Amino acid sequence: MQKFFILWVSLLALMIGGCTGKHYSISEPKIITIKSPKLKFADTGYIRHEGESVEAELFTAGVAVEKISIDEKVCVSAGCMSEQDFIREYLSAEYPTDTLRRILLGEPIFQGINTSEQCGGAKTQYIRNEKMDIVYRLKPGLSYFKDRNNGLIIRIENLDDNQSR
Predict the structure, then answer these.
(1) Any idea what DSSP says for residue 106?
(2) Which single residue of 89, 118, 163, 164 could bond 122 by disulfide (Cβ 3.0 to 4.6 Å)?
(3) Is 70 domain-assigned?
(4) What is the tally of structural domains in the chain?
(5) pLDDT tens digits along 53-70
């Protein structure tokens, strides 16, 4: 009887707690470059997302070296923190809280201010003041973010587009 109880409790714990991570319906291979004072990476990775949840898994020589998950909190190998704290620590305290999430999802940042549209669906944002000098370009298959004042570059390109050249 005790064996059945232990088995039943174990199965219940697995069903309630689950043993798998978050499931993302979209998973895309990318070439990802991140250059910031605290993060430096340039290789392949995956951007996975479901709704507003997004995850960037970064690989070097086929080995997963970092994962950045953004949901209620931002989690990296160093631990989890609020999205606002992550932006302050890893990017710039002057950025809106959702800046990295928007870049990873390939969406306009800073609520789309100063966005100009070019032919072929490309969009460019210029955000300049005394604390930031941002150029953010979005076009099919490519997101490019650069802040000259804060020394940040984030470039995300479709892996398939890059291989066909």
Answers:
(1) T
(2) 118
(3) yes
(4) 1
(5) 999 999 988 899 999 999
CA angle 22, 17, 58 (to 5 degrees): 25
Give mean pLDDT, residues 76-91: 92
Contact 28, 158 (CB under 8 A): yes
Q: Can you give the CATH number for the domain in which 32 is found?
A: 2.50.20.10
Dihedral sign for Cα atoms in the order 134, 159, 98, 107:
positive
Examine residue 5 and state whether it is found in any structural domain, yes or no: no
Domain membership of residue 26 (yes or no) is yes
**Helix and strand counts by DSSP (H, E) for the chain:** 4, 11
pTM of the shown model? 0.81
Task: Quote the CA–CA distance of 103 and 105 in Å, as a whole number.
Answer: 5
Question: 104 to each of 18, 48, 96, 164, how far by Cα in Å?
Answer: 27, 9, 14, 22
